[in-house]
Amino acid sequence: MGSELRLVLIISFVSVLVFSTSSSPLPRFPRQNRARIQLFGEDRNDYQYETKYFSQQLDHFSFADLPKFSQRYLINSAHWTGASELGPIFLYCGNEGDIEWFATNSGFIWEIAPKFGALLVFPEHRYYGESMPYGSKEEAYKNATTLSYLTTEQALADFAVFVTDLKRNLSAEASPVVLFGGSYGGMLAAWMRLKYPHIAIGALASSAPILQFEDIVPPQTFYDIVSNDFKRESSSCFNTIKNSWDAIIAEGQKANGLQQLSKTFHFCRALNSTDDLSDWLDSAYSYLAMVDYPYPADFMMPLPGHPIKEVCRKIDGASSDASILERIYAGVSVYYNYTGKVGCFELDDDPHGLDGWNWQACTEMVMPMSSSQKNSMFTAYDFNYSSYKEDCWNTFRVNPRPRWVTTELGGHDIETTLKSFGSNIIFSNGLLDPWSGGSVLKNLSSTIVALVTKEGGHHLDLRPSTPEDPKWLVEQREAEIGLIQGWIRTYRLEKEAQFPLLKRSW
Amino acid sequence: MGSELRLVLIISFVSVLVFSTSSSPLPRFPRQNRARIQLFGEDRNDYQYETKYFSQQLDHFSFADLPKFSQRYLINSAHWTGASELGPIFLYCGNEGDIEWFATNSGFIWEIAPKFGALLVFPEHRYYGESMPYGSKEEAYKNATTLSYLTTEQALADFAVFVTDLKRNLSAEASPVVLFGGSYGGMLAAWMRLKYPHIAIGALASSAPILQFEDIVPPQTFYDIVSNDFKRESSSCFNTIKNSWDAIIAEGQKANGLQQLSKTFHFCRALNSTDDLSDWLDSAYSYLAMVDYPYPADFMMPLPGHPIKEVCRKIDGASSDASILERIYAGVSVYYNYTGKVGCFELDDDPHGLDGWNWQACTEMVMPMSSSQKNSMFTAYDFNYSSYKEDCWNTFRVNPRPRWVTTELGGHDIETTLKSFGSNIIFSNGLLDPWSGGSVLKNLSSTIVALVTKEGGHHLDLRPSTPEDPKWLVEQREAEIGLIQGWIRTYRLEKEAQFPLLKRSW
């Protein structure tokens, strides 16, 4: 049975989801929850905040009679210089997950708050974490009707309403707001500058692939970068992975092949299909490319520094009689079991779970993903919108609007657009990050600047500084601080010119 | 019965609506329909266009399962130089009424189209004219649920989707779009620059009171300007009007007073209350101030040039034994019966009609309106949000969001905002127009400019040129043409720099 492996991959930033036309149409999610728990255990003590809730309109753009919902936000005012000093407000644009997870993984913002005398706020994105419409995740995720208000535009409006109200309550209407965000949160930060230029004075959009839509960048971009990340470490490693997909299928077609594969890869339960294994590996490689940080970190998983190098060392360095699949197992164990504590691996154990990013990917966040025969180490695949749409319909009973994001939020001809529209955005990207291919990698104007680091991974700059930080990372963060200082200085000078009596010690 | 006259006035740009707490809580509409028919009879032949329809999402910002609707648009491509020449697209942002009415009252755009080689499109605003969700006005206006998608944000998104699709169909993605709009349409044009900077390269926002919200301008602004317009013609005229309100109430309190008033003012049917008469007069004065054009025109009603001067001539020039109410009647007849063909006057004959602007005023477009004892010729009134809200609830079962517009579309600190955000907006205003008080009257940057004319009325610059045009009006339009030419030139130079092969004869 030569079942053809044609995967439609909907890739999230914190969880790789797989729509497989040949097996389950439902998305599955790797280790996110486990990773989160580990992180909280480690980081919580470093970041002190109050948790509060803000009553939000469920639909900002209609007057349908809908119940309001509670948006959670974290706030820290320990360093704020206050409204009378025009103390800035740093707002992290919460993305597709628990806001505590993002807040505690954004050490950079916490570190620079004292220098700026900034108030920190981390509003959570609707439909994630505790910010559930209709009172609970179960109700919010019930069906396409209850999910229908999970959109980027509503989330941006949430931020605008939230911060406007916060400023009013603090009598801090004149305080400048600076936006931060990583990954989808970075896209939100950049889009806030586009859609709400009156709400914030600037945005640090880290690893924000705002161009990963429609036909703006080639659909192969993501997987080509993942593949290149492996190739640069070792071309034999790259080739081993490239050849492994056929080996997996061949093995799976044997009598007891799935059982044997389950054993080779130490799964707790027998595999149902080779697709499950391929997806599991695909996830690992994609995340490894994202978090190929230069020092040990544990954003997704506890990992060593330069984890791809480690993976390839295992793949290439296996004993000469190791099979190709044994090599692959040795490599991927670096990702899934670096601590060595995992006895056996679980595939996603909630095949019927509905995750928010899947909904978003099936409505607005349609990011075409292919993998090329030529450059990629993955199975060749051409993005097929029809089957993508069909999968979305089968999963959610919703039709995507693949052209809506570019209409609403731009993207085509971003250079002319951003140049003539706006100001004060930093697009920071590390070129190891496969999402960098869909981001802005060159300066668009004197105030819309790209900070690109060759060795950087997925929003590395937002992480806390460490003694192991390479020089280029230290310099990147210094550049970011300098630019933000410049925005605030300019803003204050303009205020001062408008209201001469306001002159202070800024 | 000393019934106190406390009116909450919701003022539209094409129809003055009156919420009277003491009488009918339902809005009433003066002559709009009749005026429209007269205009069409006169103007239709001058403007040739095709009428087409575009299928729109009812809700752009959610994925609720809603029926699409047909948005009407008018299109003229007679002068378009085409996609290959980067021929510009002039888009009029349809406002609160039949798009044919606005298109045929925007002669300026038609006149300059040949000079620019421009494609003209006039998309209609949802819920007006023929662009009715749910198939008919009756269904669309049925209740708060069906009306709930009548919002400014949805209308802006309609324009963005419409023009993006149009450009794609014409393979004219690179053609620059210039926005035009008068009054609420001008607000939409300016807001398009704020919310969709990637969709259009600039906007002529004529008589666009984007600051008439919340506490940005004093609530007395509108009626103070109306009053000043009368006072500058004649202070005795101003005083006669100022004294007439008490005279009306006094007359109404007499036995047979309402009957006598109906006779004095030539109503076809007896008045039910003096409020009805006061509202009718209030409407006339407000519109007279808006359309106090320097030559005969018939935007709202057929009127002579300088109609306020005419009104005051009648009021002041009545025979010396004329009563104050007879004077008022003589004056207001200039507005309601300049042609002399009206035998008797009808008050609004559809007290239960629900008009779209009333809904908008009761949801987002909350423009506080007061009239001051000191400067105004109207009855003193302090805007009272509680009773406004109550009227909205009684009428539509909807609660206004009075702070939403400033959150979503800015307004507070417009100077800093627009200066640091954007480019290419012309705010044109005539100071006779009572809406000018809520608009932008000074240059905010080198590309966000105010063209202010002392003698101008409500979006006079958008009207067709006439032989009687005063010099300042001719100059104003020349300045507008020059600025638009500059935007297009800059855009083309940038395109040329990006794609050197595109060099053409621009």
UniProtKB/TrEMBL annotation, chains A, B:
Residues 1-23 form the signal peptide. It holds the Pfam family Peptidase_S28. Keywords: Glycoprotein, Hydrolase, Protease, Signal. GO terms for biological process: proteolysis. One of its GO terms (molecular function) is dipeptidyl-peptidase activity. Belongs to the peptidase S28 family. This is BnaA06g24710D protein. It comes from Brassica napus.
